[in-house]
Amino acid sequence: MSEERPQLIVDGKRLDGRDFDELRPIKIEAGVLRRADGSCYLEMGRNKIIAAVYGPREVHPRHLQDPSRAVIRYRYNMAPFSVEERKRPGPDRRSIEISKVSREAFEPIIMKELFPRSGIDVFVEVLQADAGTRTACLNAASVALVDAGVAMKGIITAVAVAKVDGQLVLDPMKEEDNFGEADVPFAFLIRNSRIESIALLQMDGRMTVDEVKKGLQMAKRGAMQIYEMQRDAIMRKYHTEEVE
Ligand code: CDP
User: Fold this and answer.
1) Residue 9, domain member (yes or no)
2) How close is the Cα of 49 to the center of ligand 1, in Å?
3) How far apart are CA 83 and CA 234, in angstroms?
4) Is 72 a member of any domain?
5) Which pick of 88, 109, 189, 215 has the fewest CB atoms within 10 Å?
6) Probe target for ligand 1 pocket from 124, 177, 202, 204, with the most ligand atoms within 8 Å of CB
């Protein structure tokens, strides 16, 4: 790789001027797609994501049906134009992995027993990527699932923590992800406005045990801020519908 490594922290600030524990600007809108049962548009920094939920509905092919509960499917997809170097369309190892771990984050919280023989399909499309797309997609998918009225035990809220220039930072952007020492995406199950458990935890790079503990606290504080915005987006949608 010929790209020169930039200094990521200058005078105690990050390249985009953020504090270490500051999220990127976030925008969330629920119910943006007419033909989906639930949907969401979300921006997290320069990431732009669309999530669409279909179901509970009949499962095709039928042999995939489960007579006792709903089958959850989650497809993460990156548009070819979402990244700097055009991405080849279609699934690859990375998108299959992200789809799998994201589905596993939702599996325990969706009340699948309520919808036997049916399927719940979650599609997340990355329109523009700038690091942290798996976490941004989880946040969008959560709002879309609520918008679809799918019964859940709580909501999933996700954010990553990174180590850059020896410093822990919240919600890394592309340069920090590329040139940092570690990247740790977290997803939490939030129930009754409290973090109840970790739904996803991955790690790329190295951190000490102490850094992981501190990173977890930083991620939890960030997640609570995102959670408020997810709630807000859902409230806004239903409030508007009432008025119309
Ligand atoms: O997006 P996330 O951080 O969850 O996953 P990643 O595999 O750590 O990817 C980090 C970033 O690399 C993505 O958000 C994209 O901005 C970029 N990327 C890319 O430019 N081309 C790809 N084929 C895959 C990722």
Assistant:
1) no
2) 13
3) 29
4) yes
5) 88
6) 177
Residue whose CA lies nearest to ligand 1 atom number 16:
130
Distance from Cα 155 to the centre of ligand 1, integer Å: 24
Report the alpha-carbon distance of residue 43 to residue 210 in Å, rounded: 31
In the predicted structure, residue 231 carries a pLDDT above the cut 90: yes
State which ligand 1 atom lies nearest to the alpha carbon of 132: 3
Across residues 27-41, what is the average pLDDT?
Answer: 98
- Name residues contacting ligand 1 (CB within 6 A): 83-84, 87, 94, 129-134, 174, 177, 183
Residue 241's pLDDT is 60
Q: What are the φ/ψ torsions at residue 12 (nearest 5 degrees)? A: 75, 10
Handedness of CA 191, 199, 219, 208 (dihedral sign): positive
Span 184-201, mean pLDDT?
Answer: 98
User: Structurally, how many domains does the chain consist of?
Assistant: 1
**CATH code for position 207:** 3.30.230.70
Domain span including residue 31: 15-243
3 state DSSP class of 2:
coil
Q: pTM for the full model?
A: 0.96
pLDDT of residue 4: 79
Phi, psi of 148 (to 5 degrees): -80, -10
The closest residue, in CA terms, to atom 3 on ligand 1 is 132
Residue 5 lies in a domain: no
What are the DSSP calls for 30-75, one per residue? E---SSSSEEEEEEETTEEEEEEEEEEEE-SSGGG-BTTBPEEEEE
* Cα separation, 44 vs 225, whole angstroms: 12
